[in-house]
């Protein structure tokens, strides 16, 4: 089964904005996939629906063959989400943030302690494990969000504009972390409005505009046509 399958997805918000007008896409297991498009295109709505934060109007979504409408909990266990806004407690330490998150998902404490160290090392944050997270740089905070999402060992990691508004140095550090996660076998989907980011990271992409996919395919093929 595809890591993500979306069929004829539509979303009309209360008030009448048609954010998605029949979107279909498949993401293969192991892929690094970009949803590229300008502000307002519908990217956040799409990943909001996939991660069960937004209700769809119609259409079908499945994650590794698990239908979201039929077995939402099972689908959510396969998926990790890195939201756009920093949303951890700035007055907690990175290590505690990860361990508490794992606890929330029912991971035994002993296992959570092991994973927290692994994920902080993978995100190059092990030396910051015990500082107040408020003192982390912007790039470190964003890598901490990635480390947190990886605590549940998702098979599919979804990131909403992970590098929006950060400078190129920070972006490169995050790219490195994401490449390593993908190389270790996790499927990644990210939204971005930077072509350069999609080009540098992703194998496949969909270009979305005004709630519709206007191009879809391997990065190399699409770049050749631009
Ligand atoms: P993107 O992530 O590509 O910037 P969004 O999915 O956030 O696009 O938005 C798509 C469209 O839906 C935009 O016109 C946006 O204003 C609208 N929209 C997004 N969220 C809501 C909401 N909660 N209520 C009403 N309209 C919304
Ligand atoms: P993005 O384009 O990255 O999604 P936005 O600024 O469009 O960022 O949206 C930020 C938040 O506001 C999101 O939670 C989105 O759902 C909500 N939002 C966006 N547009 C509208 C809207 N027209 N009405 C209500 N909520 C909206």
Automatic annotation (TrEMBL):
Which residues of the entire protein appear here: the answer is: 9 to 234 of 327
Q: Does the keyword Repressor apply?
A: no
What organism does the record attribute this protein to?
Luteimonas salinisoli
The UniProt record lists the ABC transporter domain at: 4-226
Q: What is this protein called?
A: ABC transporter ATP-binding protein
Alphabetically, the GO molecular function entries are: ATP binding; ATP hydrolysis activity
| Entry keywords, A to Z | ATP-binding, Nucleotide-binding, Transport
């Amino acid at each position: 089964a595809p890591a993500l399958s979306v069929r004829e997805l539509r979303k009309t918000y209360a008030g009448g904005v048609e954010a998605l007008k029949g979107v279909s896409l498949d993401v293969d297991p192991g892929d690094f996939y970009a949803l590229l498009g300008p502000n307002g295109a519908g990217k956040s709505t799409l990943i909001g629906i996939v991660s069960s934060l937004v209700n769809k109007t119609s259409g079908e979504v499945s994650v590794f063959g698990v239908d979201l409408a039929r077995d939402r909990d099972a689908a959510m266990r396969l998926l990790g989400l890195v939201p756009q806004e920093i949303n951890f407690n700035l007055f907690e330490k990175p290590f505690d943030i990860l361990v508490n998150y794992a606890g929330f998902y029912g991971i035994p404490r002993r296992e959570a302690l092991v994973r927290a160290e692994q994920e902080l090392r993978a995100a190059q944050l092990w030396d910051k494990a015990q500082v107040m997270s408020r003192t982390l740089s912007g790039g470190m905070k964003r890598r901490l969000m990635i480390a947190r999402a990886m605590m549940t060992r998702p098979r599919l990691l979804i990131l909403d504009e992970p590098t929006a508004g950060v400078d190129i140095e920070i972006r490169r550090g995050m790219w490195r972390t994401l490449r390593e996660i993908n190389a270790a076998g996790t499927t990644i989907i990210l939204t971005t409005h930077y072509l350069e980011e999609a080009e540098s990271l992703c194998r496949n992409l969909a270009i979305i505009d005004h709630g519709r996919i206007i191009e879809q395919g391997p990065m190399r093929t699409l770049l050749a046509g631009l």
